[in-house]
Amino acid sequence: MGGALVEYDATEGKDAGSIVGELVRDAESVDETEVRHREDRGMRATPAVRALARKLDVDLSLVAPSGPGDTITRADVERAAKSLSDAGPAERLRGMRRAMAQRMAAAHSEVVRATVTEDADIESWEQDEDVTIRLVRALVAACKAQPSLNAWYNARKGERRLIGRIDIGLAIDTKDGLIVPVLRNVSARNAGDLRQALDRMRSDVADRVVPPEELRGATITLSNFGMIGGLYANLVVVPPQVAIVGAGRIERRVVAGRNGPHVKRMLPLSLTFDHRVVTGGEAARFITVLKKDLEELI
After folding, report:
1. Pair type for strands 220-223 and 168-170
2. Is 2.40.30.10 the CATH classification of the domain at 31-110?
3. Which of 107, 88, 96 is nearest to 241 (CA)?
4. Percent of the chain surpassing pLDDT 90
5. 220-247: per-residue pLDDT in tens?
6. Cβ-proximal residues to 224 (8 Å cutoff; 6+ apart), any chain
7. Distance of alpha carbon 57 from alpha carbon 135, whole angstroms
8. Average pLDDT value over all residues in the chain
9. For 112-295, CATH number?
10. For residue 298, how many other CB atoms are within 10 A of its CB?
11. How far is Cα 155 from Cα 164, in angstroms, rounded to an integer?
12. Which helix (H) or strand (E) holds 125?
C-alpha cells in the first residue's frame, strides 16, 4: 500500500515517470485521432462546423460554444483557431508530468476532500530555525494525538488501517513535476539525523536517482509550499493516505493582543483530509496540536 507518485527507471539514472501498473502503457496505446473523434461526438455542432474544425485542426472539446443551446458556431471555431495560432504547439504529457496528471486525477475522483486552516505564532523562533524539521516534529505530535490521520484507507474493501509508525512523504517541486520521497520512522529520529536525511533526499531528487522504494509507503504527506509562495491551499490527498499538511509562506502580521496590536511572524497551516474516514472533529484536533507544537519554545 502507499503507492508512489512516480517510479524511476534505474537504467542510465533516468526516470521513467511511470505509474505503478499498466495504466500508462494502456493510455499510450490509444490512437490520438480516435480519442479526439470520441470527444468531438459529444459536442453540439453542425456538420459544416465540424468540417471547418477538422480543416483548421481545432479540437472541439476546447471550444467555448456561443450559439443557441450551447452549439458551437463557425465563429467559435475560427476564434479558437486564432488563439491556437498564437500559442505554442500542443505537447503530450510524458514521463513524470503524465504520471502526476494520472495520479492526481485518480485521487480527485476518489477522495472526498475537506480542508481546515490555522495560523501558528512563531515569533519566538530563532531567525535560522529549521522550518521543515519543526514541521516534521509538530506533525509527529499531531499524529500521536490523532492517530486517525496517520492511516491508510482501502476504499474497495471499506477498510481503514491505523499506522503505528510515522513515515512522512515530503512533496518536492521539480521542473518536471512533483516528486514525493518518504522520510521513514520520523518519531524515532533526532533533528540532526532528519536534516541529513532531508538533504540526501533533495540531492537524490535533483540527480533523479531516488530508488523506487523510497517513493512508496508514506502514511501522511507534508507540503512546505510556502517556500515558493502562497498562504493556504486545498491540497490533494493521494490514496491510500487520508491526510496531507501544507505550510504556507511565513509573513509578519499585525495580530490582536491583550495590551493592543502586535506585529508577529505567522505560519499559515492547511490540513486537507479524506472526509470519508476522518471526521471534522479529528481534523480540528489534529491541526490544533500541530499549531500548539509549532508555537512551543524548544
Report:
1. parallel
2. no
3. 107
4. 66
5. 999 999 999 999 999 999 999 999 999 9
6. 131, 132, 135, 170, 171, 246, 247
7. 50
8. 86
9. 3.30.559.10
10. 9
11. 20
12. none
Task: Count Cβ neighbours within 10 Å for each residue of 29-60 and write b for 16 or more, e otherwise.
Answer: eeeeeeebeeebeebebeeebbebbeeeebeb
Helices assigned H by DSSP within 41-189? 47-56, 74-86, 95-110, 131-145
Q: How far apart are CA 225 and CA 246, in angstroms?
A: 7
Q: Is 99 exposed, middle or buried (0-12, 13-18, 19+ CB in 10 A)?
A: buried
d(CA 240, CA 154): 6
Whole-model pTM? 0.76
Domain boundaries, the chain: 31-110, 112-295
| Lookup result for grid cell 493556504 | 232
- Residue 163 CA, chain-centre distance (Å), reads 21
Q: Which helix (H) or strand (E) holds 276?
A: none
Distance CA 99, CA 27 (A): 11
Cell numbers at 177, concatenated: 513535476
Q: Report residue 43's pLDDT band, with 50, 70 and 90 as the boundaries.
A: confident
Distances (CA, A) of 238 to 94, 103, 219, 244, 250: 20, 8, 10, 8, 26
Rounded CA-CA distance 57/273 in Å is: 42
Specify the DSSP element, H or E, that contains 186: none
Comparing 25-34, 96-105, 117-126, 255-264, the range with the smallest average pLDDT is 25-34
Residue 2, all three cell numbers: 502507499
First and final CA of the chain: distance in angstroms? 35
Closest CA to 85 of 62, 58, 60, 61: 58
Give the chain's length: 298
